[in-house]
Records
---
Amino acid sequence: MHWNSYYMMGQFAEKHLNKDQVLNILDVGSMEVVDSGTYRPIFDVPAWTYTGCDMAAGDNVDVVINSPYHLPFAKNTFDVVITGQVFEHVEFFWELATEIARVVKPGGYLCIIVPSTGQVHRFPVDCWRFYEDGMKAIAKWIGFDVLEARVDENSCWKDAILIAKKP
């Protein structure tokens, strides 16, 4: 992850999450890659429980998943699901979005951060770039209400962010 992605995720947490409310948070694609940092410090709040999941064991991974299209959690488990710098590496991102929607509680939040530009960076594949309309389309696909969808034109990757809420 790069500094702008971390900053954007921090802004999401600051604006939308209550530090006094008990929250169960899932980070999809949580592994720290090459000392790049993780979102965990943002969510290190006494009332919050953070779970990181990824396709392989590693730093910041609490749960190893076999497929991004089948999360090993019950329906309506999490108050918040975050994912940053992941959707561009998922061949069928709409399937992952559908699976994420399944595990978010009604009234829960989804925050996706993903590049809209930048060089190819396979991990193990690099399939997509996203813009504001694409982020809104993801929310529409899974039936979530868009709270924010935009591209940060000032960052090196021109990160796109979607903040959405499950009705």
---
Amino acid sequence: MRKIGCLVLAIACTALAQTNPTQKLARDILSELVSIPSTESGVGSTPAAEAAAKRLLAAGFPAADVQVIGPEARKKNLVARIHGSGKRKPLLLLAHLDVVEAPRADWSTDPFQMVEKDGFFYGRGTYDVKDGASILLANVIRWHQEGYKPDRDIILALTADEENGVANGVKWLLDHHRDLIDAEYCLNTDGGDFLLAKEGRPLAATVQMAEKWYVDWKLEIINPGGHSSQPRKDNAIYQLASALLRIQQLQFPAQPSDIVRSYFAKEAALVGGQPGADMSAAAAQPPDAAAIARLSQNGFYNSLLHTTCVATMLQAGHAPNALPQVATANVNCRVLPHMKIDEVRQALTNAINDPAVKLSVVDTPTAAPPTKMNPEIDAAMASTVGKMGWTIPVIPVMETGATDGKWLRLAGIPTFGVSGVFIDPENNRAHGKDERVGVREFYWGVDFYDYLVRALGN
């Protein structure tokens, strides 16, 4: 396995010096998209959607097949279509255009200028998920220019508001223009990150079948306050801090789903050693508690096994010389699919153990059922992995974050998260500073999606 992996890497690294035209196009698109600050405080998604549309029209797409639409001027979506023979229902390809905030002072480079160095492309969105948008857009242009005629329509949707809400993106398209994106199933590049071993060889191709659901809780303490020269015993900041420290110690029970157990069972042989043995033990019925405890020391494995809640924002006080009258915090929970909100509320209430702390839901959360494996997807993934020259397994996974796949699953459109891009799971910089994607891995993703869609379109 190691020798085969190293050989593949050597071949791929040599090939990088001679990128094919679609890879080069994808790189140019990624650079352009990164330069557009499609954040909530920036310009929104519309300029990125318009830039994508401009490229499609320049490539010869009929104007009727390229639409930039949305309910809000700053938050529009691109939807484009390649017409097939119509023998089967369409295939939807999905990525989002909005990105999280990226303060320049936090970064070693300008987050909105793509920089290539040390084998990586740096910039906000290079990993989440303008790389996916660029890979899909470049391939759609390739297929159109080659005159590719699949047996189903191929729909490209580059959407708004995955990171910054739900009002304008996939949910809006489903509610108001479902006909534009209705499909037999969807491939979502915002999920199913392929895994690299520590030495950089491909380890596994993953397919995201489920995801945790997302809920924000507001913790609030109201206090009479007063002058800071006469401190009160019931300081709102101290009370809130104590509550947050108790939440820090909260550990939800390990509840590995069938998808997670399958993931651990398959990855165990790839990882080996004590971690591999622990994965096998965690996949057993019942799972081994000691193995669960050891795996839970790793942030990624812990999030696969447990519901998690973590403080993400704080606000308190109104003057430096006054006692705080209000102290609030946001606690973000990522909840296992089967778990109910009342269970989470009760666990938080028990952990806080202070009636002075008001606990309320910020937004109404929505959970989606897992997607069942489709034999056609399974076969196409296996054949594509083989065409790429990789000797690696295809493993179903549960996403620990949240994606727009939730809305499609709830609407009855099975959604499979397939990023096509390998990452080092120990160095995931999504939403963080110096976000990056591997140059080699990005170019692989371009060709991977070409093979995959052709396998599903013929």
---
Amino acid sequence: MRGARLTAVSAAAVLVAGGVALLVVDGEPRPAAGQVAASPEPPPDRGALLPLISGAAPAPTAGGLQGAVDATLADPAIAGRLAVSVVDALTGEPLLERGASTPVLPASTAKIATAVAVLTSLDPDTQLTTRVLAGSAPGEVVLVGGGDPTLAGPEVARRYPQPARLTTLAAAVRTSLAGTPLMRVLVDESLYSGESTGPGWTGSYVSQGAVAPVSPLMVDGGRVRPDRDARHDDPAIAAGRALADLLAPGAEVVRGTAAPGARELGAVQSPPLGRLVEQMLIRSDNDLAEALSRQVALSQGQPASFEGAAAAMRDVLLAAGVTPGGIALVDGSGLSRANLLQPAALTRLLATAGQDDRLAPLLTGLPVAGFDGTLARRYRSGDARPAAGAVRAKTGTLNGVSALAGLVRTADGRLLAFDLTADGVPLGATRGAEAALDRLAAALATCGCR
């Protein structure tokens, strides 16, 4: 049965020093340094939270909707800097538009476009394989990256569900070596090409842990420790060292490539792509977003680089109905300030997702307001609280930009797709802009708007 599965919103992390915002990028809420994270609430039953689109529920009118949101649109935190697109998810009819056809900096709401590109170009059951092949000399092995950033090291944190394990791979290699001493590990990154950081990225993205240098080979998302944000400067070499430490501590680790037809010594597979898309959205995971965009590139015969991924995603999204001027993305995560996306293009994709079974992981991956993922700490008090559980969306947050895009069910049960993007938010005013966007989404959720 074809139908919509409603879903949720993601939040942002603001890194500060002395009260001055230094970096603002989407990410799962986490405690400040030295604090212990509180135990999270049990996650909701995501399937039970996803009602089908109903044509029986009355549709809002444009006038009714405008009246319900006028007061919030005038909030000083977002007034004069907000682009708005709200459409009926069943019919695709626009109900409220302000600058909806003007391309804006989407920040991390670009991950919605990445999710659509992945799910319409690849089988969601596809898994990414990390292999170890025999080297050209005795005692030499080649660790070949398959693009899985969720590959877990020996100390597994609960960051990804059922990841492939490096310990499992090491055990298979040990058996295949049959007693031959390991002397050298080559790390093979040949699946990807081009730069490891994106156009428009700042150096602080890697140094402050928002993303790792992009590589097809990394362990724990390139993190130095799986429960921390700090990243390795060279994730592939770090992965090779982690494998060597499990097999033969002190073995040499260098770059190289596997010889054609080399014997496989072991392999492990990632969770299915559909599950990875969900995790990308729930946590606003930049590493997964870049990895998934490169899988789109490979599926379209493009190089697995920033340029190839951008070209492939554009082609796939144009085929999905985005107008040629609607999208200009240069990365998969939304970190780059060179990205541009029309709010109307994003709501079109969201409305399509509500009626296309292929896109179910997009909907089940959007965090639920007030419950989980990057929205876990929002919609818990004040005027936004009535929308907890009814708003399901993705946030986008960079310095100067606060965005919210997703799906919401009105008081009458009608499903709406929305994109709310505020540009020009002053440094230090991100939380105020987020609160205003939450109140605006709550106004959509609590009105019948007829």
